Amino acid sequence: MCVEKCPVYPTELVFALDQSYDSTEQRFNRMVDFISSIIDRLNIMENNCPVGARVTVTAYDSYAWYLIRWFDYRNKKQLLQQLSQIKHQPPRAAQDIGNAMRFVARNIFKRTHAGPSVRRVAVFFSNRQAASLSSIITATMEFSALDIRPAVITFSERALLDEAFEFDNTGTFQVIPIPPYGGYEPTERLWRCTFCYDKCFPNVCAKEIVLSEDSYMDIAFLLENSQYIANDEYKAIKALVSSMLDNFDISSAPLTSSGDRVALLSYSPWDSSRRRKGKVKTEFDFTAYKNRFLMKNYIQTHLQQLSGEATIGQSLKWTIEDLFPKTPKLRTHKVIFVVSAGENYERRAFLQSIALRAKCQGFVIVVISLGSAHKDHVEELASDPLDHHLIRLGRIHKPDLDYIVKFLKPLVYSIRRGFNQYPPQKLNNECRRMHTGEDYLFTPEPREIALEENSFTGQELSAGRVSPLVLEDSGSDHLVYIPYHVMMPQELMTKYEEVQDSEEIASLTSVYPFTKKSDLSYSVAGDENHGRKEEVGLTYQPGDAALQEYYMDVAFLIDASHRVGNDDFQEVKAFLISVLDYFHIAPDPLTSTLGDRVAVLSYSPPGYMPNAEECPVYLEFDLVTYSSVHQMKHHLQNSLLKLNGDVFTGHALQWTVDNVFVGTPNLRKNKIIFVVSAGETNPLDKEVLRNVSLRAKCEGYSIFVFSFGPTHNEKELEELASYPLDQHLVQLGRIHKPDLNYIIKFIKPFVHLIRRNLIPGVYEIETENSELSDEVGSQEQHFFALGNNYNDSGTTADLIQMLYSLFSSGKLRTKDKEEAHSEEITANDKQRDEKGNPWCSLQSI
């Protein structure tokens, strides 16, 4: 029977222990005791009874990792026992509480109990003053947007945390100082406003925020209402703008210097048939209305949707040149909210120059990008830092719009308090050149970009017809970046002298997918040129393929069931950590369209059954959590654990597609799922696995399957993997280090092939003799079995090793579509006859 205690509502509760450089064993044990005393007084959720707290315990330094997950215990007694077994570990990094807060928001709270009454609370312990206010503000914005209530229990200075949390008038964002030494009991406010908060009595914790006169702002909403927005979506945008008005203290006398003022702008769209520029329409200006209710009434009754193309640059130009300068008594802060949903057909250089002019004049530009259209200009349009001023949504639906409204609350407060500088210091030189009339649109010098940082330059690495050339030098671990307009003429010839090391020549390979008008084609000289001058011809011609098509979104779905032994699981972790080196991780995975993004999920949690509330997977991190390989490796090394449940691969795959990929902004063209499987799926899951894998492949996902262990169903594996099977399915009879090393090398050429759009397709490997080509044509391989006595695994192993060798050394030539057309038809017909038609039929889904 459920008994109502503290917490009043079902609560997802996360504790985060500071284990950074400043954490001593004595201090760490004190934090653990503090948590134990809190849990001892809380009602802990048991047996899915929807009352009490479900607790997770983590530790953090620069990153975060799990100590206790909610499924590691079944009752309060077991939870307290698990807590008593936590031991202090030697610190390895400095503290970054902001980054740890974002990890908790994006991962641990990703899958929680649904329902409007469920509360989400995170309690962080801190041993030192936070190093970065910006990092904490970013985390605070995400916490506010996701309705997560934080409390920070600190042993040191609290000034930055207090500043970041001051926006909250509910009193549920708390900083609790405690003495560095001696005992401490949680205050009544911590219990009442964090653990036992009752939403029916909010005034108990509420606090008043007093605004100073120099904190008022003029806010212009620049609203796109073009043909790209459906009627229902446009109604949602109107509701969004109406809700956003609640974040402002609207002036009752707009002609005086007191209070915030709001203007709403739309524009007659660009007429693409007549090449006529649009005209901005002032729906209402800064002095038209004295309260938000009149503004909301206008938005709902008078704001009409237009049609045509978007002209954001022209609209922004009119806003900063006409609207603001002609308004009396301008406020200290000038803010422009751009709500955008469609492609922008203005010249990119024009939009860049207008945005720079606005920023140099002190305007704050916040961009809300709806839909999948905008990819380049929104990052250049928004103010810095982008984490604060750019919100991108893949599609419009109510939860996302609520996210925006809640996200903006701390943002508006940070603008009032001047936490960010407008313009930022990094624009000082460009602003100076603009004010003095110098030409600031100059040709930049070629740059070196460290691979470890995965740095991508936003303006020059653009996805248009002016794409740059990026060369990878494995000898220096650097990317040499050359903007397109420096590469003239369009053919670049590089000559190597006799004294140059041939290995160094082979290592210099392009990481950009060069294209011909017909299709992809590249040719690298072989060993026959060794010892004399060697030419490598890279003919670049801007094609229709954008730079973004080179990158990929990747999800690793790891079997962590009871069938995986402890030693085997450690080997799988080592394998996964090694494979991450093949990806160029996006430095800004949430907003940028450049770079690879990686998610990792483990499946087979204990007690999971279909149609239950539990999740079939455990999300380690999603596509937008981490911005470097180092962060991912650190997480996997410290947090990836066995789950020891039964195998439901189909349900895990379905959850991955629906929750990791769908709804994530800026999805890459290449969507890859690596399934690491240790055994046959549960009989209750077989039909789901068959249908979900077919659906995923029909929706453009590539599924690679790596299986190990003796209990696999070969037909099941073949139905799961993408075609052709010999490129997407590898089966191991058992795990040992050489086999995993083999798989690591196996993956490298196929990641390359995906980037080059060669899978599925026809390609030819040319060598000095044609033995390999003959060997490939002599038989059809459907899957690889290592350590078994069937399917001619020796021949297959030789083939893959040769394939890996050819890719790594550059001895590869791909065929054009026209050249390979007849062979492709023959190969496809043969495969359909033997394996059934691999292509998708809508009737079969």
Query: Residue ranges: pLDDT <50 for 5 or more in a row?
Result: 271-276, 439-545, 760-799, 807-845
Hey, roughly how much beta strand do the residues contain? Answer: 15-25%
CATH architecture of the largest domain: 3-Layer(aba) Sandwich
Alpha-beta classification? alpha/beta
Mean pLDDT over the full residue set:
74
In CATH terms, the superfamily of the largest domain is von Willebrand factor, type A domain
Count of DSSP E strands?
A: 25
Summarize the biggest pleated sheet.
7 strands, mixed
Question: What spatial order of strands do you see in the largest sheet?
Answer: 21-20-19-22-23-24-25
Question: What best-fitting shape do the alpha-carbon axes yield?
Answer: globular
Structure description:
With 845 residues, the chain is of the alpha/beta class. It has four domains: 11-204, von Willebrand factor, type A domain (Rossmann fold); 213-432, von Willebrand factor, type A domain (Rossmann fold, 3-Layer(aba) Sandwich); 447-539, no CATH class; 551-844, Rossmann fold. 33% of the residues lie in helices and 18% in strands. The strands form five sheets. Strands 21-20-19-22-23-24-25 form a seven-stranded mixed sheet, with helices on both faces. Strands 3-2-1-4-5-6 form a six-stranded mixed sheet, sandwiched between helices. Helix 7 runs parallel beside helix 13 and helix 16 (566-579) packs parallel to helix 22 (737-755). The radius of gyration is 29 Å and the shape is globular. The chain starts with 10 loop residues before the first strand and ends in a 10-residue tail after the last helix. Mean pLDDT is 74; it is low at 271-276, 439-545, 760-799 and 807-845. It comes from Galemys pyrenaicus.
